[in-house]
Amino acid sequence: MSCATDSNSEKFMSRAKEWTADVENLFRFQAAGYRDELEYRQVKQVDLVDRWPDTGFVKKLQRRDGTFYFYSRKRECQDSDIRNVKIYAVLESGLPWLNRSYLFVLSPLTLTLPRCSVLHLSFHGSPSVDRKISRISHG
Asked: Of 28, 42, 77, 101, which alpha carbon lies 20 to 30 A from 16's?
């Protein structure tokens, strides 16, 4: 699994703790053998992933061996599967004060920090979404 980062970036992996729509989609990508949507789009060289229009869940994925996985428009990630979903993040260097216990991300991303107490997360591979997380430790 490749992740294009420079040598000054740190990679983090955590596990999902509760079901969300993002966790559902990560579950589907990982069941098909990919880390996340970004890796799928890089490997398959596609711009868009087939999604159900009403839920936004991934509809169809092609595994590396050419086999297609078709998913329901309803939830497929059972409660017992949630802890198996891996969530990846890349943290830019130069943030020694960031407490890793507060790093919770829902999609592949790059963290950029303006000089304030709010993290701005740029989500790649999802519809352009910017989210803010204000639970940061300045210790």
From this structure: 42
130-133 and 119-123: which strand pairing?
Answer: antiparallel
Over residues 54-76, the pLDDT tens digits come to: 999 999 999 999 999 999 999 99
DSSP letters of 100-111?
Answer: GGG---SSSEEE
Considering only CA atoms, which of 91, 109, 88, 71 is closest in space to residue 35? Answer: 88
Where would I find the H helices in 8-47?
A: 21-31, 37-44
Using DSSP, state whether 113 is helix, strand or coil.
coil
Cβ-based neighbours of 33, under 8 Å, separated by 6 or more: 63, 64
Q: Which residues pair with 14 in a beta bridge?
A: 87
Question: Is the distance from CB of 49 to CB of 41 less than 8 angstroms?
Answer: yes
Q: Is 94 left (phi over 0), alpha (psi -120 to 50) or beta?
A: left
**Per-residue b/e over 48-77, b at no fewer than 16 CB within 10 Å?**
ebebeeeeebbbebbeeeeeeeebeeeeeb
